[in-house]
Design a protein that fits this description.
The complex is a heterodimer of chains A (about 100) and B (about 250). Chain A has about 100 residues and is an alpha+beta fold. Chain A has a single domain, classed as Phenylacetic acid degradation B (Ubiquitin-like (UB roll)). Helices cover about 20% and strands about 25% of the residues of chain A. Chain A contains 2 helices and 3 strands; from the N terminus they run E-E-H-E-H. The longest helix of chain A has 12 residues. The radius of gyration of chain A is 19 Å and the shape is flat. Chain B is globular, with a radius of gyration of 18 Å. Chain B has a single domain, classed as Ferritin, CATH 1.20.1260.10. Classes of the chains: A alpha+beta (about 100), B mainly alpha (about 250). At the A-B interface, strand 2 and helix 1 of A face helix 2 and helix 6 of B.
């Protein structure tokens, strides 16, 4: 992998509207948190996508190891009863 | 001079400042120091061009000859433009662009704060929207001043030099003439001179925090209120207006 010669990497989370959760949007380069927020604003909310932004230094993200994928995720493959599909949805319930 | 003529020119000034500064910022497209900053500067450019469109549309309406904002942007000659000289100066290096943006955004912050209270509803409306954009422009320029000023000896030197070179273009921002006087009578126009102490305080404190020396007031450039410009505006317009001049009324 080519060495990144730009500034530190930050992960960007955007909340599309108040009440929704913040969703990972991508990453930006920045030298400090102010700059990370501004760059995230300029790159990921310029088409009115956001109402709130979180930025987190990428170095603080702990990621699962792809080699562990079968151990971590395969066991949930065949447990369809964990989905709430066996219930009748109450009328008027949204956001489930 | 009638009130209509005065208002037309006054609105042109507001539109031209945004159009020319917006075009200069757009020159950073694909040339930013990093991708993030490339987008940041072109975002600022789009804010300015949107503002130019709104003011020029209003100017065309005031003139009442059936013109559009495009006619005013693309079919006026150099001597009919009223933008402040500082907006037409070349973008220079990144430090120069940031210094220029700080001086302009700090001015626009006070200008649009006051103009959003104008008795002219259209000017007040456009100004209220512009003020939100300008607050961001100011923060962006201010943070870069801190970084460059307190960055490396080279970045500090370039930023300091930029402010020295630009200072003589700041006097004009606050110039007023009979147009301002006439329109101030009914609260349409604002007293620009009264904004200077606040502007100077703000710029002074940002520069101090950036370890940059505030340049001393010396000779101030002037001319734009009468349509007299630096050598740079003609070249800029030849690029901006090329298509409409070569192929009048061309459409997609």
């Amino acid at each position: 992998m080519a060495t990144d010669t730009q500034l530190d990497l930050w992960e960007v989370f955007i909340q599309s509207k108040s009440g929704n959760h913040h969703t990972h949007a991508g990453s930006v380069h920045a030298s400090d948190k102010q700059m990370a927020l501004q760059n995230a604003r300029d790159i990921y909310t310029r088409r009115n996508e956001g109402s709130s932004i979180w930025v987190v230094p990428s170095k603080y993200v702990t990621a699962s190891n792809s080699e562990d994928a079968d151990m971590l995720f395969d066991p949930s493959n065949d447990k369809i009863y964990r989905h709430p599909t066996f219930y009748v949805m109450p009328e008027g319930a949204k956001q489930i | 001079m009638t009130k209509q003529e005065a208002l037309y020119t006054y609105t042109l000034r507001l539109g031209d400042n945004a159009l020319i500064q917006g075009h200069r910022l757009s020159e950073w497209c694909s040339r930013g120091p990093i991708l993030e900053e490339d987008l940041a500067l072109t975002n600022l450019a789009l804010d300015q061009i949107g503002r130019a469109q709104a003011f020029l549309k209003y100017a065309a309406h005031i003139e009442g000859q059936g013109k559009t904002e495009d006619d005013l942007a693309y079919k006026r000659g150099e001597r009919e433009f009223y933008n402040n000289l500082i907006t037409e100066l070349p973008i220079g290096d990144f430090a120069y662009t940031i210094a220029k943006q700080l001086l302009i955004s700090a001015f626009e912050f006070y200008q649009f704060s006051e103009l959003s209270k104008s008795s002219d509803e259209t000017i007040a409306g456009i100004s209220a929207k512009a003020l939100k954009e300008v607050r961001y422009h100011l923060v962006h320029a201010q943070d870069w001043c801190y970084r460059l000023g307190k960055g490396t000896p080279v970045s500090h030197k370039k930023l300091q030099q930029a402010f020295r070179e630009l200072w003589m273009y700041t006097g004009e921002l606050f110039e007023m003439d009979e147009i301002d006087q006439l329109l101030m009578q009914d609260g349409t126009a604002i007293d620009l001179m009264s904004l200077r102490p606040d502007w100077l305080n703000l710029v002074g404190s940002i520069l101090a925090d950036s370890t940059i020396v505030l340049p001393a007031d010396t000779y101030m450039q002037t001319g734009s209120r009468k349509g007299i410009h630096t050598e740079y505006l003609g070249h800029l317009l030849s690029e901006v207006q090329y298509l409409q001049r070569a192929y009048p009324d061309a459409t997609w």
